[in-house]
Amino acid sequence: MNATPRWLTSEQKAAWDSFIRMHEKLMGRLTRQVRADSHMSAADYIVLAKLTEAGGGRIRFLDLAKLVEWEKSRMSHQVGRMAKRGLVAREECPEDGRGAFIVATPAGYQAIEEAAPVHVEHVRRLFIDALTQEELDTLARISDRVIAHMEKQPD
């Protein structure tokens, strides 16, 4: 059952290519800035940000992996590296003997509290300041719409 590919129109390809270029440039710059400013990887930053945004600085391991869209093995390796540096700890889940919580340690809180203000300034400088509030509102609506659409699609 070979279906004919639904190729992108030139306008669709231009929009897609532009989006990808912007995303790669922005993520590359922000990743380099986080490392230079805080000596954390982008992965360290996102894990600590998600943990510290959660009530109590703790999230179940599988929920954290789903939240950042990572495979279990990637999350396991990342948490292991961060635990060795004292940024997070793994705690057993009392309700589920097989489950575990990932918890931000005091060192993890300190690291994200020091990195976040500098990071948000780079986000503002590289992204927010380039757009009007109306453009930001439109982008948020578009992003939410694409996310809702993706969640209805098979993985």
Automatic annotation (TrEMBL):
Span of domain HTH marR-type: 1-148
GO annotation, biological process: response to stress
UniProt-listed Pfam families: MarR
InterPro entries per UniProt: HTH_MarR-typ (IPR000835), MarR/SlyA-like (IPR039422), WH-like_DNA-bd_sf (IPR036388), WH_DNA-bd_sf (IPR036390)
Entry's Gene Ontology molecular function annotations: DNA-binding transcription factor activity
Signal peptide: none
PANTHER family, sorted: MARR FAMILY REGULATORY PROTEIN, TRANSCRIPTIONAL REGULATOR, MARR FAMILY
Name of the molecule in the record: MarR family transcriptional regulator
